[in-house]
Every structure is written in structure tokens, then in C-alpha cells.
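Materials and Methods. Structural model of Signal recognition particle protein. The 438-residue sequence of Signal recognition particle protein from Intestinicryptomonas porci was retrieved and submitted for structure prediction as follows.
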Amino acid sequence: MLENLTERLTKALRNLRGVGKLSEENMAEALAEVRQALLGADVHFKVVREFIERVKAESVGKEVLQSVTPGQQLVKIIHDELVNLLGGGATELSPIRPLKILMVGLHGSGKTTTSAKLAKLLKKRGMNPCLVACDVYRPAAIDQLEALGRQIDVKVYSDRGENSAVKIAKRFERQASEDGYDAVIFDTAGRLQIDEGLIKEIIDIKDLVNPAEVFLVADSALGQEAVNVAKHFNEAVSITGVVLTKLDGDARGGAALSIKTVSGAPIKFAGVGEKLDDLDVFHPDRMAQRILGMGDVVSLVEKAQEVVDEKEAMRMAEKLRKAEFDLEDFLSQMRQIKKLGSMGSLLKMIPGLSGVQIGEREEKKMKQTEAIILSMTPQERQNPNILNARRRLRIAKGSGTEVRDVNTLIKQFEQMRKIMKMMKGDGARKMMRNFPKM
Ligand SMILES: Nc1nc2c(ncn2[C@@H]2O[C@H](COP(=O)(O)OP(=O)(O)O)[C@@H](O)[C@H]2O)c(=O)[nH]1
Ligand SMILES: [Mg+2]
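The predicted structure was written out as C-alpha cells:
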């Protein structure tokens, strides 16, 4: 799948060596290759266009990290955007019990097979699933589901005398919960293409059963057609996820890359073979790795990024130690902390403060502090001593806070600086003991 992407990129990125900054010009060739590879893999052209734009926005003008090449950095950006395109993080099954899953999709997409695969997976997770045969149009469909059920030792409810799928669904849903099943998977009929009758039947079943999950089973070999089907089904019955089947075949990958953007529903599982074990939880990052095939480059850049964060934290710690710390540093440090999502780097370097956690309240406070500092002029940030009453009032107004808040912040900052100054001497260790009280 998308095999030539790695090759095309490697070639194009060779020319990016030795460039200090990524720019529209020096990335042009590489991005043209990416565009060609994506279009060649049958990714929707609008998705391709947006993808290229996002990669550009993420990379133009960005300083290239030390110890990696610009090409490597671009690979990482492309990788991250691929992950986004594929839906971000992996999504899990609804926690609602009994877990009712309605399987919908075109004829031959793999609904019946996937129903059995899912039942097997749920069983492995310690659940007690059953299957309901709602494909009433072909007796062979019921035979197929029953045969699969026997293979995995899962109960299959069916009624060959009933010709209303809706009635079957309702009756066996009740039966299943009386029999103590905590997951009920409804296998439904499909058509060769979407038609009103099919949609109506699914809507009726859905309204009656109220399933926690509505899975569209889509054949990845259909490429863009699979994406259109997903969009259509989603508009009609609000699917909660897509199971993309036959990814083991020679599908070009375009469906996987477009389906989230076009249909709005995330891919939850991937069918990767005819056997009942051939169902994978869909992981966007792993898929992106497979598509791009440059896992070593991606982790290299991630490591370089960590080094930069560490270095910056170290520089700040040094400033702190020398008491050269001004409000400008305070602000940039706070942003760093916000970026890291925790007090991480800096606090770990200050004895006594490691292990401090940031909660919601602190976060709000940090936002307020940030707003206050942002309302100061650069001179005020470098030299808080000039902050008289008039300036403080202006800053409070500018940041949507009270003068009281501005005063508190400045007082805290002064205190911190005072402590830092004292720490310069050999009283450092003694002062550290007082630090947590701040
Ligand atoms: N290779 C491969 N074949 C699959 C996969 N999922 C389903 N199939 C095959 O596709 C065909 C149609 O599947 P079926 O479950 O009957 O589709 P339904 O009409 O939607 O119920 C069967 O021959 C399955 O074995 C898959 O992930 N990989
Ligand atoms: Mg079927």
C-alpha cells in the first residue's frame, strides 16, 4: 500500500540536505512527490490538497532541529499529519452494556465475516457475545453466520420463517439479554449499491434497537467508492465507526486516508484476511508508519525534539540560578510547561519541587498569569520595578483581570527573585527548604 511513497520521498528529500530552514521553495519537490504518491494511492483530491497545505503550514519557516536534517524533520511533519488524517488516536468500543453493535454496509463488503470476527474479539476480551442474523433475503446468509458462530462457539439467533429484519432484531435483542449476553451483534443485509430500501430497513432497526455502535463495513478495495459509501451511510444513520476490510489485498490505501475526513467517522477496526482472527484494532500511528515506512527517521526527530526541550529547560534553570530571571523568561517558561502538559522538565531540576502536579485550577491560574504578562510592554517585563499604579491598572484592564491579581503576580515574582538571589551564595541549600512554601 502506497509503497512508492517512501521511495519518492527519499529521492526528493536528498535535495533538502544542508538547508537551515524549511521553506516553500526547498520543500516544493518533496511535496510534489507526496502529492503524486497520495493521488496515485487514490486519496481524494480535496484531502490531498488540504494535507499538503497543513504540512506546509507546519513546516515553513521552522528552524531545523540540531542533529537532524531538514528532510528528516519534514518526514516527521508528514508522519504527524498522516496520523491526523487517519483519525488521531485509536478509538475504543463503547462501554455501554449490553453492547449492541449494528453492522451495515454494501453486499460483499465483509459484514457477516466481520460480525463473527468481532464476536471472537469480544470473547477474547472476556465478554459474552451473541450474533443475530438479520439478513433475511438470502437463506445462505443465515447458513454462513451459523457456520461462523459454530467455529467460534458463539450463539447465533435466527428465524428462517420471519421476513422482517426489524422484527427479528427486536425479538432477538430481548431474547439475548434474557439469556445473559452482554454483547449483541446484528448482521444485516446489503445491496450492490446504496438504495432507499436498504437505508430504510437500517434506520428502522436502529430506531428499535438503539445500538451503542453502528459500524459501517467498507471494502478498502473500492477506494474512493468506499469513502462515498461511508459518507452516505453516515448521513443516513450516523455511523459510529468504520471497519475497513480487505486491507490485506492490494488496496491502494486511498480509502483509509480519506474516510475520516470525508465521512467524519473514524476507522475502528481493520480486516486483514479471511480468517476469524484477521481483525485488528485500527491504530492511526501504526498505519501512518506502514504507509510512510520511515519509522527510524520519525523516532530520531522525536528524540531530537526532546533534547531541545531539555536544553531550553536547562537554560532556564541556569538563569534561575543566576537570578537573571525576568518576567519574559517567566512567560516563556510557562509556555514551555504548558506545552509539556506538566511541570515536567523544569520542576524536576529544582529539588523539592519534583512531583508537583498541575490541576485544573492551576491551569486557569496559569492562563491568567500569561494574560497579565502579555499585557505588559517588553520594558515592563524586563524590569518589573517600573510598574507603578497607573501601569498596573492598564495591565489589569488589558488582561481582563483586577489590579489585585497583577499585584499578586508581581509580588510572587519578586519573592521568587529574592530567593534566587539569596541562593546564589552558599545559603542555597537552606533557602531551598523554603521554596515549596511559595
Ligand atoms: N481477504 C479478505 N477477505 C475478506 C475480509 N473480510 C471479508 N472477506 C471476504 O469477503 C467475502 C464477503 O464477505 P461477507 O462477510 O460474506 O460479506 P457481506 O456480504 O458484507 O456479509 C468473503 O469471501 C469473505 O471471506 C478481509 O478483511 N480480507
Ligand atoms: Mg452477509
